[in-house]
Amino acid sequence: MLFAHGAWDSTLIGARGIGFSIRLDAISGVMLLLVSFIGWVVVRYTATYLDGEPRQGAFTGWLSLTLATVLLLVLSGNVVQLVLVWIATSLFLHRLLLFYPERIAAKRAAAKKFVTARIGDMALIIAALLLTFAYGTTDIEQILNAARAGTGGDPAIVAAGFLGVAALLKSAQFPMHGWLTEVMEAPTPVSALLHAGVINAGGFLLIRFADVMLLAPGVLAGLVLIGGFTALFAGLVMLTQPAVKTSLAWSTVAQMGFMILECGLALFPLALLHIVAHSLYKAHSFLASGGAVELIAANRRPGPVASPKAGAVARAFLLALAIYAVVGFGFGFQHKSPQAIALGAILIFGVAYMLAQGLADAAPRALTRRTVVYAVATSVGYFALQVFAIWLTSGVLPPAPSPGPLEWALIVLAVISFGLVAVVQAMFPLWAYHPAAAGLRVHLSNGFYANAVFDRLLGGWRMRDAS
Protein backbone atom coordinates (compact mmCIF):
# COMPACT_ATOMS: atom_id res chain seq x y z
CA MET A 1 0.00 0.00 0.00
CA LEU A 2 2.81 2.40 0.88
CA PHE A 3 4.52 1.88 -2.47
CA ALA A 4 1.31 2.21 -4.47
CA HIS A 5 -0.31 5.14 -2.67
CA GLY A 6 2.45 6.75 -0.58
CA ALA A 7 2.19 7.77 3.06
CA TRP A 8 -1.09 7.32 4.89
CA ASP A 9 -2.31 9.56 7.73
CA SER A 10 -5.33 8.74 9.86
CA THR A 11 -7.84 11.28 11.07
CA LEU A 12 -7.29 12.65 14.56
CA ILE A 13 -9.31 11.01 17.32
CA GLY A 14 -9.54 13.99 19.63
CA ALA A 15 -10.01 17.73 19.44
CA ARG A 16 -7.96 20.91 18.99
CA GLY A 17 -4.97 19.00 17.66
CA ILE A 18 -4.74 16.84 20.78
CA GLY A 19 -5.51 13.15 20.49
CA PHE A 20 -4.54 9.95 18.72
CA SER A 21 -3.50 9.71 15.06
CA ILE A 22 -1.26 7.49 12.98
CA ARG A 23 1.25 8.32 10.27
CA LEU A 24 2.29 5.29 8.22
CA ASP A 25 5.07 5.80 5.70
CA ALA A 26 8.39 4.19 4.82
CA ILE A 27 9.98 5.43 8.07
CA SER A 28 7.27 4.25 10.46
CA GLY A 29 6.76 1.07 8.42
CA VAL A 30 10.42 0.07 8.76
CA MET A 31 10.49 0.94 12.46
CA LEU A 32 7.19 -0.90 13.05
CA LEU A 33 8.62 -4.12 11.59
CA LEU A 34 11.90 -3.70 13.46
CA VAL A 35 10.35 -3.04 16.87
CA SER A 36 7.77 -5.81 16.45
CA PHE A 37 10.35 -8.41 15.45
CA ILE A 38 12.92 -7.60 18.14
CA GLY A 39 10.17 -7.21 20.72
CA TRP A 40 8.77 -10.64 19.85
CA VAL A 41 12.22 -12.22 20.19
CA VAL A 42 12.92 -10.47 23.51
CA VAL A 43 9.55 -11.48 25.01
CA ARG A 44 10.10 -15.12 24.04
CA TYR A 45 13.64 -15.02 25.44
CA THR A 46 12.36 -13.47 28.68
CA ALA A 47 9.95 -16.36 29.26
CA THR A 48 12.93 -18.72 29.56
CA TYR A 49 15.47 -16.33 31.04
CA LEU A 50 13.29 -15.35 34.02
CA ASP A 51 11.56 -18.69 34.44
CA GLY A 52 11.01 -19.21 38.17
CA GLU A 53 11.65 -15.57 39.14
CA PRO A 54 9.00 -14.45 41.68
CA ARG A 55 8.42 -11.16 39.77
CA GLN A 56 8.54 -12.58 36.24
CA GLY A 57 4.96 -11.47 35.54
CA ALA A 58 5.68 -7.87 36.57
CA PHE A 59 8.79 -7.77 34.40
CA THR A 60 6.93 -9.11 31.36
CA GLY A 61 4.18 -6.55 31.93
CA TRP A 62 6.58 -3.59 32.04
CA LEU A 63 8.41 -5.03 29.04
CA SER A 64 5.18 -5.22 27.05
CA LEU A 65 4.17 -1.70 28.05
CA THR A 66 7.56 -0.37 26.93
CA LEU A 67 7.22 -2.08 23.56
CA ALA A 68 3.66 -0.78 23.15
CA THR A 69 4.72 2.82 23.75
CA VAL A 70 7.62 2.48 21.30
CA LEU A 71 5.18 1.26 18.66
CA LEU A 72 2.92 4.23 19.35
CA LEU A 73 5.96 6.49 19.14
CA VAL A 74 7.03 5.39 15.66
CA LEU A 75 3.43 5.58 14.42
CA SER A 76 2.65 8.99 15.92
CA GLY A 77 0.75 11.30 13.59
CA ASN A 78 0.85 14.41 15.80
CA VAL A 79 3.42 15.99 18.08
CA VAL A 80 1.26 15.79 21.23
CA GLN A 81 0.98 12.03 20.95
CA LEU A 82 4.68 11.78 20.14
CA VAL A 83 5.67 13.71 23.27
CA LEU A 84 3.39 11.70 25.56
CA VAL A 85 4.56 8.27 24.38
CA TRP A 86 8.17 9.48 24.31
CA ILE A 87 7.90 10.24 28.04
CA ALA A 88 5.94 7.04 28.77
CA THR A 89 8.60 4.89 27.09
CA SER A 90 11.24 6.32 29.41
CA LEU A 91 9.13 5.86 32.54
CA PHE A 92 8.34 2.22 31.74
CA LEU A 93 12.00 1.52 30.95
CA HIS A 94 12.85 2.99 34.37
CA ARG A 95 10.83 0.25 36.04
CA LEU A 96 12.78 -2.38 34.11
CA LEU A 97 16.12 -0.87 35.08
CA LEU A 98 15.09 -1.19 38.74
CA PHE A 99 13.92 -4.80 38.47
CA TYR A 100 16.66 -5.71 40.96
CA PRO A 101 16.27 -2.74 43.34
CA GLU A 102 18.82 -4.12 45.80
CA ARG A 103 21.65 -3.60 43.29
CA ILE A 104 23.42 -0.30 43.93
CA ALA A 105 24.78 -0.10 40.38
CA ALA A 106 21.27 -0.59 39.01
CA LYS A 107 20.00 2.32 41.10
CA ARG A 108 22.88 4.48 39.90
CA ALA A 109 22.16 3.69 36.25
CA ALA A 110 18.43 4.29 36.71
CA ALA A 111 19.07 7.61 38.47
CA LYS A 112 21.29 8.89 35.67
CA LYS A 113 18.84 7.69 33.05
CA PHE A 114 15.96 9.37 34.90
CA VAL A 115 17.71 12.76 35.11
CA THR A 116 18.91 12.62 31.51
CA ALA A 117 15.48 11.58 30.25
CA ARG A 118 13.65 14.37 32.06
CA ILE A 119 15.95 17.00 30.53
CA GLY A 120 15.34 15.43 27.14
CA ASP A 121 11.60 15.42 27.76
CA MET A 122 11.65 19.16 28.46
CA ALA A 123 13.61 19.77 25.26
CA LEU A 124 11.07 17.79 23.22
CA ILE A 125 8.11 19.57 24.86
CA ILE A 126 9.64 22.95 23.98
CA ALA A 127 10.31 21.77 20.42
CA ALA A 128 6.70 20.60 20.04
CA LEU A 129 5.36 23.92 21.30
CA LEU A 130 7.62 25.85 18.92
CA LEU A 131 6.61 23.70 15.96
CA THR A 132 2.93 24.15 16.78
CA PHE A 133 3.46 27.90 17.01
CA ALA A 134 5.52 28.06 13.80
CA TYR A 135 3.11 26.05 11.66
CA GLY A 136 -0.22 26.47 13.44
CA THR A 137 -0.85 22.72 13.70
CA THR A 138 0.17 19.66 15.68
CA ASP A 139 -0.16 17.37 12.65
CA ILE A 140 3.25 15.96 11.68
CA GLU A 141 2.38 15.64 7.99
CA GLN A 142 1.42 19.30 7.72
CA ILE A 143 4.52 20.37 9.67
CA LEU A 144 6.83 18.38 7.38
CA ASN A 145 5.18 19.65 4.20
CA ALA A 146 5.48 23.25 5.36
CA ALA A 147 9.08 22.78 6.47
CA ARG A 148 9.97 21.23 3.10
CA ALA A 149 8.61 24.39 1.48
CA GLY A 150 11.08 26.39 3.59
CA THR A 151 8.59 28.08 5.90
CA GLY A 152 8.60 28.29 9.69
CA GLY A 153 11.12 31.05 10.31
CA ASP A 154 13.07 31.42 13.54
CA PRO A 155 10.65 29.36 15.70
CA ALA A 156 11.21 26.34 13.44
CA ILE A 157 14.98 26.81 13.56
CA VAL A 158 14.96 27.01 17.36
CA ALA A 159 12.67 23.96 17.44
CA ALA A 160 15.27 22.07 15.40
CA GLY A 161 17.81 22.91 18.09
CA PHE A 162 15.62 21.48 20.84
CA LEU A 163 14.88 18.41 18.72
CA GLY A 164 18.63 17.92 18.46
CA VAL A 165 19.06 18.20 22.23
CA ALA A 166 16.25 15.70 22.85
CA ALA A 167 17.80 13.26 20.37
CA LEU A 168 21.28 13.56 21.87
CA LEU A 169 20.01 12.87 25.38
CA LYS A 170 17.77 9.99 24.31
CA SER A 171 20.55 8.23 22.42
CA ALA A 172 23.17 8.48 25.20
CA GLN A 173 25.60 10.92 23.63
CA PHE A 174 28.69 12.24 25.40
CA PRO A 175 28.79 13.37 28.18
CA MET A 176 25.37 11.99 29.21
CA HIS A 177 26.15 8.43 28.09
CA GLY A 178 27.05 6.92 31.45
CA TRP A 179 23.72 5.28 32.25
CA LEU A 180 23.85 3.08 29.15
CA THR A 181 27.16 1.52 30.15
CA GLU A 182 25.71 0.51 33.52
CA VAL A 183 22.46 -1.16 32.48
CA MET A 184 24.19 -4.54 32.73
CA GLU A 185 22.85 -4.67 36.29
CA ALA A 186 19.36 -5.08 34.83
CA PRO A 187 18.28 -8.44 33.33
CA THR A 188 19.81 -9.24 29.93
CA PRO A 189 16.48 -8.80 28.06
CA VAL A 190 16.56 -5.10 29.03
CA SER A 191 19.83 -4.64 27.16
CA ALA A 192 18.33 -6.26 24.08
CA LEU A 193 15.08 -4.30 24.49
CA LEU A 194 17.01 -1.01 24.30
CA HIS A 195 17.71 -1.79 20.66
CA ALA A 196 14.02 -2.22 19.83
CA GLY A 197 13.57 1.48 19.17
CA VAL A 198 14.39 2.77 22.68
CA ILE A 199 18.01 3.86 22.47
CA ASN A 200 17.47 4.51 18.74
CA ALA A 201 14.56 6.86 19.42
CA GLY A 202 16.83 9.90 19.19
CA GLY A 203 17.80 8.97 15.66
CA PHE A 204 14.18 8.25 14.76
CA LEU A 205 13.19 11.70 16.02
CA LEU A 206 15.77 13.39 13.78
CA ILE A 207 14.77 11.24 10.80
CA ARG A 208 11.06 11.90 11.32
CA PHE A 209 11.64 15.67 11.40
CA ALA A 210 14.36 15.67 8.74
CA ASP A 211 12.72 18.51 6.81
CA VAL A 212 12.71 20.66 9.93
CA MET A 213 16.33 19.81 10.72
CA LEU A 214 17.45 20.98 7.26
CA LEU A 215 16.24 24.47 8.16
CA ALA A 216 19.01 24.71 10.78
CA PRO A 217 22.49 23.95 9.31
CA GLY A 218 24.10 25.08 12.56
CA VAL A 219 22.19 22.44 14.50
CA LEU A 220 23.24 19.77 12.00
CA ALA A 221 26.86 20.87 12.42
CA GLY A 222 26.53 20.44 16.17
CA LEU A 223 25.16 16.93 15.66
CA VAL A 224 28.17 16.07 13.49
CA LEU A 225 30.62 17.27 16.13
CA ILE A 226 28.93 15.63 19.13
CA GLY A 227 27.98 12.43 17.33
CA GLY A 228 31.39 12.07 15.73
CA PHE A 229 33.23 12.65 18.99
CA THR A 230 30.96 10.20 20.83
CA ALA A 231 31.59 7.53 18.17
CA LEU A 232 35.37 7.95 18.33
CA PHE A 233 35.51 8.21 22.13
CA ALA A 234 33.24 5.23 22.82
CA GLY A 235 34.87 3.12 20.11
CA LEU A 236 38.27 3.50 21.78
CA VAL A 237 36.88 2.86 25.27
CA MET A 238 35.13 -0.28 24.00
CA LEU A 239 38.47 -1.86 23.08
CA THR A 240 39.65 -1.68 26.71
CA GLN A 241 36.64 -3.33 28.38
CA PRO A 242 37.27 -6.79 29.85
CA ALA A 243 33.58 -7.76 30.20
CA VAL A 244 31.64 -8.77 27.09
CA LYS A 245 28.38 -7.00 27.95
CA THR A 246 30.13 -3.81 29.02
CA SER A 247 32.05 -3.82 25.76
CA LEU A 248 28.77 -4.26 23.88
CA ALA A 249 27.27 -1.33 25.79
CA TRP A 250 30.16 0.94 24.83
CA SER A 251 29.80 -0.30 21.27
CA THR A 252 26.17 0.84 21.35
CA VAL A 253 27.24 4.30 22.54
CA ALA A 254 29.67 4.46 19.61
CA GLN A 255 27.06 3.25 17.13
CA MET A 256 24.54 5.79 18.36
CA GLY A 257 27.18 8.48 17.93
CA PHE A 258 27.73 7.37 14.35
CA MET A 259 23.97 7.42 13.74
CA ILE A 260 23.80 11.01 15.05
CA LEU A 261 26.75 11.86 12.79
CA GLU A 262 24.83 10.52 9.79
CA CYS A 263 21.84 12.66 10.69
CA GLY A 264 24.11 15.69 11.07
CA LEU A 265 25.43 15.06 7.55
CA ALA A 266 21.77 14.97 6.37
CA LEU A 267 22.14 11.31 5.34
CA PHE A 268 18.78 10.42 6.84
CA PRO A 269 18.07 7.31 4.69
CA LEU A 270 21.44 5.86 5.73
CA ALA A 271 20.74 6.70 9.38
CA LEU A 272 17.49 4.71 9.13
CA LEU A 273 19.41 1.81 7.57
CA HIS A 274 21.94 2.07 10.40
CA ILE A 275 19.19 1.82 13.00
CA VAL A 276 17.87 -1.40 11.47
CA ALA A 277 21.26 -3.07 11.01
CA HIS A 278 22.59 -2.09 14.42
CA SER A 279 19.41 -3.05 16.27
CA LEU A 280 19.30 -6.52 14.79
CA TYR A 281 22.92 -7.48 15.34
CA LYS A 282 23.27 -5.84 18.75
CA ALA A 283 20.06 -7.32 20.19
CA HIS A 284 21.30 -10.73 19.03
CA SER A 285 24.73 -10.04 20.55
CA PHE A 286 23.28 -9.32 23.98
CA LEU A 287 20.93 -12.31 23.96
CA ALA A 288 23.69 -14.65 22.74
CA SER A 289 26.53 -13.21 24.83
CA GLY A 290 26.36 -15.82 27.61
CA GLY A 291 26.43 -18.78 25.23
CA ALA A 292 29.19 -17.19 23.13
CA VAL A 293 31.47 -16.77 26.15
CA GLU A 294 30.96 -20.40 27.15
CA LEU A 295 31.64 -21.59 23.59
CA ILE A 296 34.86 -19.60 23.27
CA ALA A 297 36.07 -20.74 26.69
CA ALA A 298 35.45 -24.37 25.74
CA ASN A 299 37.26 -24.11 22.38
CA ARG A 300 40.11 -21.79 23.31
CA ARG A 301 43.30 -22.79 21.52
CA PRO A 302 46.22 -20.54 22.50
CA GLY A 303 48.59 -19.72 19.64
CA PRO A 304 50.54 -16.92 18.02
CA VAL A 305 48.68 -13.65 17.52
CA ALA A 306 49.03 -11.98 14.10
CA SER A 307 49.69 -8.37 15.06
CA PRO A 308 49.98 -6.17 11.95
CA LYS A 309 53.03 -3.95 11.65
CA ALA A 310 53.19 -0.56 9.96
CA GLY A 311 53.72 -2.05 6.49
CA ALA A 312 50.71 -4.36 6.81
CA VAL A 313 48.53 -1.49 8.04
CA ALA A 314 49.58 0.68 5.10
CA ARG A 315 48.87 -2.11 2.61
CA ALA A 316 45.51 -2.75 4.25
CA PHE A 317 44.42 0.87 3.89
CA LEU A 318 45.53 1.06 0.27
CA LEU A 319 43.75 -2.19 -0.56
CA ALA A 320 40.58 -1.08 1.27
CA LEU A 321 40.50 2.22 -0.62
CA ALA A 322 41.06 0.39 -3.92
CA ILE A 323 38.15 -1.97 -3.18
CA TYR A 324 35.99 1.00 -2.19
CA ALA A 325 36.80 2.86 -5.42
CA VAL A 326 36.19 -0.13 -7.71
CA VAL A 327 32.94 -1.23 -6.05
CA GLY A 328 31.82 2.38 -5.69
CA PHE A 329 32.17 3.17 -9.37
CA GLY A 330 30.23 0.01 -10.14
CA PHE A 331 27.31 1.43 -8.13
CA GLY A 332 27.51 4.93 -9.60
CA PHE A 333 30.02 6.28 -7.10
CA GLN A 334 30.44 9.47 -9.11
CA HIS A 335 26.77 10.40 -8.66
CA LYS A 336 26.77 10.17 -4.85
CA SER A 337 26.65 13.21 -2.59
CA PRO A 338 29.94 14.27 -0.96
CA GLN A 339 28.44 13.36 2.41
CA ALA A 340 27.68 9.80 1.28
CA ILE A 341 31.15 9.40 -0.24
CA ALA A 342 32.75 10.60 3.00
CA LEU A 343 30.60 8.22 5.04
CA GLY A 344 31.67 5.35 2.80
CA ALA A 345 35.31 6.33 3.30
CA ILE A 346 34.81 6.25 7.07
CA LEU A 347 33.22 2.81 6.88
CA ILE A 348 36.03 1.54 4.68
CA PHE A 349 38.48 2.43 7.45
CA GLY A 350 36.80 -0.34 9.45
CA VAL A 351 37.35 -2.66 6.51
CA ALA A 352 41.02 -1.65 6.48
CA TYR A 353 41.30 -2.54 10.17
CA MET A 354 39.95 -6.01 9.35
CA LEU A 355 42.27 -6.38 6.36
CA ALA A 356 45.27 -5.44 8.49
CA GLN A 357 44.76 -8.60 10.56
CA GLY A 358 44.77 -10.72 7.41
CA LEU A 359 47.83 -9.01 5.93
CA ALA A 360 49.97 -9.34 9.05
CA ASP A 361 53.22 -11.23 8.52
CA ALA A 362 52.19 -14.06 10.86
CA ALA A 363 48.69 -14.40 9.41
CA PRO A 364 47.93 -17.70 7.61
CA ARG A 365 46.95 -17.52 3.95
CA ALA A 366 43.44 -18.73 4.74
CA LEU A 367 42.90 -15.73 7.02
CA THR A 368 44.24 -13.37 4.34
CA ARG A 369 41.87 -14.75 1.72
CA ARG A 370 38.93 -14.64 4.11
CA THR A 371 39.50 -11.03 5.11
CA VAL A 372 39.79 -9.92 1.47
CA VAL A 373 36.52 -11.68 0.64
CA TYR A 374 34.86 -10.08 3.65
CA ALA A 375 36.20 -6.67 2.62
CA VAL A 376 34.73 -6.96 -0.87
CA ALA A 377 31.42 -8.28 0.49
CA THR A 378 31.24 -5.43 3.00
CA SER A 379 31.82 -2.80 0.31
CA VAL A 380 29.25 -4.33 -2.02
CA GLY A 381 26.77 -4.66 0.81
CA TYR A 382 27.24 -1.03 1.84
CA PHE A 383 26.55 0.38 -1.61
CA ALA A 384 23.70 -2.05 -2.34
CA LEU A 385 21.93 -1.28 0.93
CA GLN A 386 22.55 2.42 0.44
CA VAL A 387 20.81 2.31 -2.94
CA PHE A 388 17.93 0.34 -1.42
CA ALA A 389 17.53 2.73 1.54
CA ILE A 390 17.46 5.79 -0.71
CA TRP A 391 14.94 4.13 -3.03
CA LEU A 392 12.73 3.02 -0.12
CA THR A 393 12.56 6.50 1.42
CA SER A 394 12.36 8.43 -1.84
CA GLY A 395 9.74 11.16 -1.51
CA VAL A 396 9.59 10.68 2.27
CA LEU A 397 13.06 11.83 3.29
CA PRO A 398 14.83 14.79 1.68
CA PRO A 399 18.13 14.25 -0.18
CA ALA A 400 21.33 15.59 1.34
CA PRO A 401 21.81 19.22 0.28
CA SER A 402 24.97 20.41 -1.44
CA PRO A 403 27.55 21.10 1.29
CA GLY A 404 28.67 24.65 2.00
CA PRO A 405 32.02 25.72 3.49
CA LEU A 406 31.01 24.67 7.01
CA GLU A 407 29.78 21.29 5.84
CA TRP A 408 32.95 20.69 3.80
CA ALA A 409 35.08 21.49 6.83
CA LEU A 410 33.11 19.02 8.96
CA ILE A 411 33.31 16.33 6.27
CA VAL A 412 37.09 16.67 6.02
CA LEU A 413 37.42 16.74 9.83
CA ALA A 414 35.32 13.58 10.18
CA VAL A 415 37.24 11.62 7.54
CA ILE A 416 40.63 12.59 8.95
CA SER A 417 39.58 11.88 12.56
CA PHE A 418 38.13 8.46 11.84
CA GLY A 419 41.10 7.62 9.64
CA LEU A 420 43.60 8.45 12.38
CA VAL A 421 41.65 6.46 14.96
CA ALA A 422 41.50 3.47 12.60
CA VAL A 423 45.28 3.58 12.24
CA VAL A 424 45.71 3.81 16.02
CA GLN A 425 43.40 0.85 16.54
CA ALA A 426 45.25 -1.25 13.98
CA MET A 427 48.65 -0.38 15.46
CA PHE A 428 47.64 -0.56 19.12
CA PRO A 429 48.80 -4.19 19.66
CA LEU A 430 52.34 -3.03 18.85
CA TRP A 431 52.16 -0.27 21.45
CA ALA A 432 50.13 -2.10 24.10
CA TYR A 433 53.07 -2.79 26.39
CA HIS A 434 54.65 0.65 26.19
CA PRO A 435 54.36 2.46 29.56
CA ALA A 436 52.52 5.40 27.98
CA ALA A 437 50.05 3.06 26.27
CA ALA A 438 49.49 1.16 29.51
CA GLY A 439 48.61 4.38 31.31
CA LEU A 440 46.35 5.50 28.48
CA ARG A 441 44.59 2.15 28.58
CA VAL A 442 43.71 2.66 32.25
CA HIS A 443 42.21 6.08 31.56
CA LEU A 444 40.35 4.79 28.50
CA SER A 445 38.92 1.83 30.38
CA ASN A 446 37.39 4.35 32.80
CA GLY A 447 36.00 6.49 29.99
CA PHE A 448 38.28 9.35 31.04
CA TYR A 449 36.09 9.56 34.17
CA ALA A 450 33.24 11.45 32.49
CA ASN A 451 30.82 9.00 34.10
CA ALA A 452 32.36 9.64 37.53
CA VAL A 453 31.77 13.36 37.07
CA PHE A 454 28.09 12.66 36.41
CA ASP A 455 27.94 10.54 39.57
CA ARG A 456 29.46 13.39 41.55
CA LEU A 457 26.96 15.88 40.15
CA LEU A 458 24.13 13.61 41.24
CA GLY A 459 25.54 13.87 44.76
CA GLY A 460 24.83 10.25 45.60
CA TRP A 461 21.12 10.65 44.88
CA ARG A 462 19.46 7.42 43.86
CA MET A 463 16.03 6.84 42.38
CA ARG A 464 13.79 4.56 44.42
CA ASP A 465 11.22 2.10 43.16
CA ALA A 466 8.44 4.55 43.90
CA SER A 467 10.00 7.25 41.71
UniProtKB/TrEMBL annotation:
Q: NADH:quinone oxidoreductase/Mrp antiporter transmembrane domain: which residues?
A: 76-292
InterPro entries (UniProt xref): ND/Mrp_TM, NU5C-like, Proton_antipo_N, Transporter_DabB
Whether Phosphoprotein counts among this entry's keywords is: no
Ranges where the NADH-Ubiquinone oxidoreductase (complex I) chain 5 N-terminal domain occurs: 18-59
Tell me where on the tree of life, at the top rank, the source sits.
Bacteria
- Classification via Pfam families: Proton_antipo_M (PF00361), Proton_antipo_N (PF00662)
Q: According to its record, how does it sit in the membrane?
A: Multi-pass membrane protein
Q: Provide this UniProt record's keywords sorted from A to Z.
A: Cell membrane, Membrane, Transmembrane, Transmembrane helix, Transport
| Segments passing through the bilayer | 26-45, 57-75, 81-98, 119-137, 149-169, 190-209, 215-237, 258-277, 312-333, 339-360, 372-396, 408-433
Subcellular localization is given as: Cell membrane; Endomembrane system; Membrane
- Hey, what's the signal peptide range on this chain? none
Q: How does it assemble?
A: Forms a complex with DabA.
The family classification in the record reads: Belongs to the inorganic carbon transporter (TC 9.A.2) DabB family.
Q: Describe the function of this protein.
A: Part of an energy-coupled inorganic carbon pump.
Q: What is this protein called?
A: Probable inorganic carbon transporter subunit DabB
Q: Which organism is it from?
A: Sphingomonas glacialis
Q: What is the lineage of its organism?
A: Bacteria, Pseudomonadati, Pseudomonadota, Alphaproteobacteria, Sphingomonadales
